[in-house]
Structure formats: C-alpha cells, structure tokens
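ligand=nicotinamide-adenine-dinucleotide
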Amino acid sequence: MRLILEYYSGSELCSIFRKSIDMTSTPIRMPVAVIGAGAIGRMHLERMLSHADIAPAAVADPTDAARDYAAAIGVPWFADYRELLDRTRLGAVIVATPNSTHADVGIACIERGLPVLMEKPVADTVAEGQRLCDAAAAAGIPLMVGHQRRHNPILRNARKLLADGVVGRPVSITALATWLKPDSYFEPAWRRQVGGGPVLINLIHDIDLLRFLIGDVESVQAMTSNAVRGFEVEDTGAVLMRFACGALATLAVSDTTVAPWNWDLAAGEAAHYAQLDVNSHFISGTEGSLTLPRLDVWRYDGRRGWHEPLTQSRTPVHRADPYVEQMRHLRAVAEGKEQPVCSGSDGLRTLQAALAVQDAARSQCAVALV
Ligand SMILES: NC(=O)c1ccc[n+]([C@@H]2O[C@H](COP(=O)([O-])OP(=O)(O)OC[C@H]3O[C@@H](n4cnc5c(N)ncnc54)[C@H](O)[C@@H]3O)[C@@H](O)[C@H]2O)c1
C-alpha cells in the first residue's frame, strides 16, 4: 500500500496513472478507496486484495470494527470519509454506506474529481439520486451504480440471445426472488424498518435485470405483506409490471420462504452462495422462451401450436464473478476507456421502478413511470 501511495505523489493522479500504464507492460493497479466497510464494502475489499486491475488504497468507516478490519488487511483507515478523500491519492472510489448517505458521500467524491462506483440503490429517494446524477453530469465525472448482475456473463449472454430474437417479441415474464434470510440478518434496526426490506434491497436487482434485458418499466401494481415476520418492513411482495416494449411481468419476492428460486442462488452470483441447478427468471415471447440462469431456449422446430413438440436447447453457461468484472470495468471507466454499463441515471430509473412498487403497494393503485 505504501508503495502505491508513494508512487502517486504528483498532483494529478489520473494523468500520472495513465502515463504509468503506457510505460509498463504490467499495468500498476489503480488505487481505489472504499467508503463504508460493512457487509458489501468488505466483500469489495476482499476482492480488491487480489484484483489484477485495482488495489485497495484506504477505507473510511467510523466504526471500531472497520478500523480493525482495515488494519487486518493492511490498508489506511479514516473515521471521516472527507479526510480520506483529502489525504489519499486515488483513481476512483467505491461507496458502500447506507442508502441515505449515498448522495452526500458521492457528491464529496465528485467534487474532488473522483469517479464513483455507488452501491445500489443510487440513493434512497429519486430527488437525492437526481441530485447526485446532476452533480456528476455537471462535473463530467463518471458515476456508476453497483447493479453487479449486469456484469455477470450469464446475463450478458441472455441479453444477446434476446437481441438475436430467440424469443421473438417478449410477452410474458416471471421473475422469482424467494429465499430465506437468517434471523441474525435483522439485528440492525434499519433492516426491520420501511426501506430496509426485500423490495429495495433485493427485488431492485431483479427490476434492474429485467430493465437491462427488455428496457424500461412503464407502470407498476403491487401488494406487499409483513405477515410472517411482523416487522414494519415487508417480508413478501407480489408485483406486476408493464414494460415499454409491451411485455407484462410478474415478480414474486420473499425473504421468509425456504426456497431456491432466486438469481443469487441459481446463478451462483458469488462464492458465498450455494449454486443450485434451478431457474429463477422465465421470459416467454412470440417465437420462443428463455430461462435464466440456465439459458434454456424453447422453440418450435416445425409446426407451431400447443399440440406440437417444443424443442429445448441450452446455451453453455460461462460463470464468472460479476463483482470482479465490475471492478475491471470501474477502472476502464475511470480511465475513459469504457462507458458505464450502469450509469447513475440508469440506476436512478431502476430506483424509480423499485420505489413505484412501494407506492403501488401502499396506495393499491397502479403507478405510472414517466
Ligand atoms: N450490490 C449488492 O448486491 C449489495 C449487497 C448488499 C448491500 N448493498 C448496498 O451497499 C450499501 C451498504 O450495505 P451493507 O449491507 O454493507 O450495510 P452495512 O450496514 O453492513 O454497512 C454499512 C457501513 O457503512 C458505514 N457507514 C455509515 N455511515 C458512514 C459514513 N458516513 N462514512 C463512512 N462509513 C459509513 C457503517 O459504519 C457500516 O459499516 C447499501 O446501499 C446497500 O443497499 C449492495
């Protein structure tokens, strides 16, 4: 770490960093800070320790646990993220603090000219998300949102299959997000309160996944329930979505069921998930249907109709850690070599759709997205 900080002793880190890349055949890892070293922040840091493209430069998080963790992995620690930003030479920042802090922390990074990978959701409200996006746009600083599924090769493959027309026009979609969170998960109070539940924490990823595959959401209807856990926050939801392309989707979410049908377990999204041989998302169209994550395609070879045999084909699935790929992408975006796969404004549209689920459940009316 000291080597990295000493190397970046000039005033313009990014230009020095680019020069260093040009001069060496083995690129030096870009120094990246993590603000918020809780559950997901540590997961990022663990991957950064052995990442080929980026290295952990510093951690900001006021807790003793975060200070001890930073010491354990040999990374400078700051209680105040502003002090970290002012005292450390960086190529980019990953923000993994609670949702309500995202806009302020992100804007502090942007004001210092630092590209940001903001954990999802981009913010806790549309207004705060817009404030963050506006700041990034005004400063010309890249803002990315951590919808890491977009970096999963399975999802990219599915997107290509859809673009190639394997299902024809998407018509009817079912997305399942049902699993069991252990009781210990609910120890922090915010996870029992409105906003800390499976709609904004988990289903938002499924909404983003569908947006990535078939485009924007037009309107939402929903019901939620807290009947099993009895917390203020929902434990279960049933959602209907109409997409701009005309497709209708049914999404089921529950964090209180013993079930394997969710993307994280089915896709083996990260090493800490058991990888189960099931599907969680089903896309039916006018010419065929596609399941995820197994990428089964069902089509008619000859005559069409429900009495005719359907042919199943399976696309070989290449598995890779989307968080690792997201970090490679973070560096490429910070260097101006790639555009964000999930930009701030893209993440904001996903947040709008997820908040519409809550509005629809509360009002029991359809909510239109503009
Ligand atoms: N991409 C994903 O799949 C995924 C998964 C989990 C969480 N998240 C997102 O990541 C964020 C963090 O979630 P988590 O589960 O890690 O929460 P967490 O409560 O485990 O960790 C949050 C950490 O941020 C720290 N913190 C709070 N305010 C801070 C501040 N002002 N400066 C620095 N540190 C501060 C806390 O001390 C805590 O250690 C949330 O936005 C959440 O939605 C994303």
